[in-house]
Design brief:
single chain; 6 helices
Length: 123
C-alpha cells in the first residue's frame, strides 16, 4: 500500500513538472566546447532549467527550441579604449589604485592570521 502511494506521488510530481514552464539558454559555443551531442545539449539545458524528472523521448519531443548565433572577437584593452572611449581610459588610474588596495588588504589579512597562529613542533 505504501509503495503504491509513493508511486502515485512520483507520478503526480512528474505530471506537475511536465506542466510547468522551464527555460534555459547556453551560448551557442558551449555545446561545441563541451563536445556534447545535440541530445546531450538539450538534456543539459533541461537540467539547467531546473527540471529534475526523468528525461523521456516524449518530453524531448515536446521541447520548443530557439537557436542563437554568436561571434567572438578579441581586442586588447588599449584597442578597446581607443575605439570605444576616444583613447581616454575610463578607469584612469583607478585600476592601479584598486590593485594596490587589494594587495594591501590581503597582506594585512595574512599578517592578522599569522599573528594568531602558534608555531607547531612535531617530535
Amino acid at each position: 500500500m505504501e509503495q503504491q502511494q509513493q508511486q502515485q506521488q512520483q507520478q503526480q510530481q512528474q505530471q506537475q513538472q511536465q506542466q510547468q514552464h522551464y527555460s534555459a539558454t547556453f551560448l551557442p559555443e558551449v555545446a561545441k566546447e563541451q563536445s556534447w551531442t545535440a541530445k546531450e545539449t538539450v538534456v543539459a539545458l533541461i537540467r539547467k532549467a531546473g527540471y529534475r524528472g526523468t528525461v523521456t523521448n516524449d518530453l524531448l519531443s515536446k521541447i520548443q527550441c530557439t537557436r542563437y548565433q554568436s561571434s567572438k572577437c578579441r581586442v586588447s584593452y588599449s584597442e578597446y579604449v581607443d575605439v570605444s572611449h576616444d583613447g581616454k581610459d575610463p578607469l584612469g588610474d583607478s585600476v592601479d589604485d584598486w590593485m594596490a588596495a587589494a594587495v594591501k588588504e590581503e597582506v594585512g589579512r595574512r599578517n592578522r592570521v599569522m599573528n594568531h597562529v602558534k608555531p607547531c613542533v612535531n617530535l
